[in-house]
Amino acid sequence: MSAENIRRALVTGSSSGIGMAIAQALLDQGWDVIGLDLAPARLVHPAFSSTGVDLCDAAATARAVGDAGPVQALVHAAGVLRVGRLGALADDDSTLMWRLHVDAATRLANLVVPAMAQAGAGRVVLIGSRVSGGMPGRSQYAATKAALVALARSWGAETAASGVTVNVISPAATETAMLADPSRAATPPRLPPLGRLIRPQEIAALTSFLLSTDAAAITGQEIHVCGGSSLAA
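^ that's the sequence the OP posted. Answer follows.
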């Protein structure tokens, strides 16, 4: 399949926040979108279908991907945030975030990327976080997001010659329901120098570009959408 025919995308976390914004943006551009999420779908569109699935469940994920059929793009936007400092870190929090962010990404890519490479075209975008560089009280979360960067660089190197690109978009604090999680009440998000939170639609716009034919030469990269947060003071 040629790059010009990349029009079917598998998007995780499509029921809310960044994932839903990405799914909507792709639908607006004429993609067919298959959403995978534990929560009920909220999008209604003739080119959108969804499957309720626990992405931490290997067998359920494999069934959902098999039912979805061939795709030319994978966007892993499903995520969860748990916070804590040394002395108060919880094993269950670490396990949950690793399974959802890293294990699920690995499982999904393992299921769909070989077919993309065989077809000679494909796109993978993983939603990371600016926190991947480290932040007090976010060590477990940061570790999982840093792992996504390592995965993207490794997979990008493996698939570059096959017409498949793999990239990470790492936003600063973004205007989503995740910010309202009671577990982070004691550590409010930091506003970037831009003076406001990042908008999900801004992440969606960059995702759309990375899935386009114009982005064929970009792979293995972590791209920050941070409103100036990563710039030196």
